[in-house]
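[job 4471] stage=fold_predict status=RUNNING
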Amino acid sequence: MLLKKITIMFVSMIIANSIAVVKAESANVFAGNKCSAMIDSRGSLWMWGDNEYGKLGNGQESYIDEQWNYICADESSPVWILNDVACADLGGNHCAAIKEDGSLLMWGSNESGQIGENYDKDVLEPVSVMDSVENVSLGEMHTAAVKKDGTLWMWGNNEYGQLGDGTKLNSGESVCVMENVCKVALGAYHSAALKYDGTLWLWGNNDFGQLGFESSHSNVPQLVMEDVKDISLGDYHSAAIKNDGSLWLWGCCLNGQIGIDKCENSVCEPVCVMENVKSVSLGSSFSGAVCKDGTLFMWGSNLNGRLGNGKATIIDKNKVIWADEFSPVKIMENVIDVKLGENHAIAVCNGSIWAWGGCGCGQLGIGEHDDMFDEPKRQSKLDKYSPVCVSELFDIYKTLKGDANGDWVVDSADATTILRYVAKIESLSGNLIFAADVNDDLIVDSADATMVLRIVAGLENKIE
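[job 4471] inference complete, writing structure tokens
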């Protein structure tokens, strides 16, 4: 009877004080190369999806062993990575987070020095690489950070001059490229910087005119537009929102990602596509914009159903069924923000989070993924052609503070697990470490075990 009473008391307490993976009203979401991330209302960073090169940052990675077996470490549900996070970004196979104190942490592939010269090829857990950072953006294999003093620093792959330092030499050491910068955005192999005076500068690869002018690649910043308030880059296309709310795009339009009907291969100068736009996000070969009234429009490639309009471009051995859209298509209303990745999208609406597109690596966070390694496939059976409300699905993955062994019951066994972890007898991974840090001091120690015992004994009536 006493145990039942304690259990009822604890369940009531958890309902009021549990840390849900998603609190949509104040969540920031990010979409990358087959992986996703979210910063919740408490500043905790969660990640899920593809884990090749260790880009989820949870100490594991997907790889092929010596016997050519595929060892999958993908996560189809959210995994806790860091606390006190203010901003994040996801690149080709590397990721970054800015903590509230301005420190920049990075992890994932370091093949071209995009994390830094002092780190291994693959970095499986977050490492600190820079201080006093305000803004960060990641490309396919290069990195850019704006410091709080407005200086822009870049490092990594420089094959097309995308570092903007006047060379085409890779650099694992950060180089200062510009001053008075308020925001930076990176494409696959090109870069853009928005200055405080509203001028937009671009450099790097220009195969499809994504720099905004007809020329070869540029290894130094070039002035392209003025009166700009926001920017976003896709793999080979670019976008800018002017102060009057007009949306301008240019670059590759092979799949309609520029948003104009009559387009062959590329558009080398900015063209106005929409008015009254609040925010824009570009994916690999598709685009999305949220208007000031909260309406979400999408256009471009629709492989994997990444536009979310209930259709999909399907490629099989015998035929191609095209469903790309060359003009903006209305998808949803009441949207606060949208982020596009390599083949999927995530939108934050009033009180909920929605995702759609490719799900072969679990990047939608619906708790499932396909093993797409054994047999090459362009279309996953889990791909979603229409938006799915994933915040409801995430409710399954709530993390209960104190439940260090993950059995959904907080009891003395959890205190034992914490003490065994402190004594290095037992290991804990992502979500369980988050649960074991009961007092939220970012350290799992005997004080957390004590608090668990006080909860079980009814001496603690809530978790702060």
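[job 4471] summary: The chain has two domains: 1-19+401-464, 28-397.
[job 4471] exit 0
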